[in-house]
Amino acid sequence: MFHVRRGGNLKTFKLFDDSDTFNVQSFRQCLLQQKDAGKAIVLLNFPNNPTGYTPKESEVQGIISVLMEAADAGINLAVILDDAYFGLFFEDSVKESLFGRLAGIHPRILPIKVDGATKENYVWGLRVGFLIFAADSPKILEALEQKTNGLIRGTISSSSHLSQSVILRSLQSSKFEEEKCKRHNIMKRRATKVKEIITREKYKEAWGIYLLILDILSA
Questions:
Q1: Cα–Cα dist 215/16, whole Å
Q2: Is 27 exposed, middle or buried (0-12, 13-18, 19+ CB in 10 A)?
Q3: Which of 31, 134, 161, 177 has the most CB atoms lying inside 10 A of its own CB?
Q4: Using CA atoms, how far apart are residues 201 and 199, in angstroms rounded to an integer?
């Protein structure tokens, strides 16, 4: 979608370091290489698809530090925070979007939050998503809204009214939080069991949990 539909020039970095934590140094190296271009779109996806990984507080501080360094170096950044799986936090990680931390943090950083009901509310077939921009200028926000409307009209034409209506009714239900909590606990039990099995001692020489997932997908 980024490369073919929108003509993006994709640059990737190594997601994990040798300790199976977010590779802040690889991220920094990749981002600072965009200094000559003077701009970059940064895509951060937590909980990550496909690994399920969400960084801990120390890693988040490293990510924010790199973004600030790049902005101070003169790189204009649109930071897309893909929070599609927001809420599926099952381990000792941050449990909030980086969007709030980046909003207003630097004049060269434009945070864009992408999330929706599709994964967060366990309605995979309805495909309802949301975009939130953070900027101090009403003119900038208006321009972003108009640009987004144009992209929607030029691609999918319009969002599904039926899906949006179903989601709205569900959010208004008095049983919404209870039902969502039940689904969350089911997902947590599944995720915990899978990780318990594949991290057993007998498998340690064969694979690391996150590298295993990435290797399977790249095979």
A1: 13
A2: buried
A3: 31
A4: 6
How far apart are the C-alpha atoms of 31 and 12, rounded to whole Å? 9
Tokens 């994709």 belong to 10
The 10s digit of each residue's pLDDT in 10-29 is: 999 999 998 889 999 999 99
Phi, psi of 112 (to 5 degrees): -130, 115
Distances (CA, A) of 74 to 99, 104, 147: 21, 16, 24
The residues that bridge with 133 in the sheet, in sequence order, are: 112
pTM: predicted TM-score of the whole model, two decimal places: 0.88
Q: Render pLDDT for 152-197 as a digit per residue (tens, 0 to 9).
A: 888 888 888 999 999 999 999 999 999 999 999 999 999 999 889 9
Cα Rg of the chain (Å, integer): 19
Helix/strand/coil percentages in the chain, nearest 5: 45, 15, 40
Strand order in the sheet with 109-116: 39-45, 76-82, 109-116, 129-133
